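Readers outside the structure-tokenisation community will struggle with the description of the input data as it stands. What matters is that the chain and its backbone geometry are given together, residue for residue. For illustration, here is how one protein appears when written out as sequence plus structure tokens:

…
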Amino acid sequence: MNLRDFKAGNLANIVEELSMAKSTANIPVKDFEEKEILQEITGYQRNKHYAFTRYLNAYSKS
């Protein structure tokens, strides 16, 4: 699996799927959040869950 296959989950899911350190995985996650590609969906400071909301919304409209 890679980030193209990732629809929603937490940082631990991303770390596991990409086989990289949490600190390394956090770099693209923060970048994707800033570019509004990935959205944090819980509103929590810890145990955040992310989703590719544009991707999911595009498919939910079809």
Q: What stands out?
A: The chain has a mean pLDDT of 81.
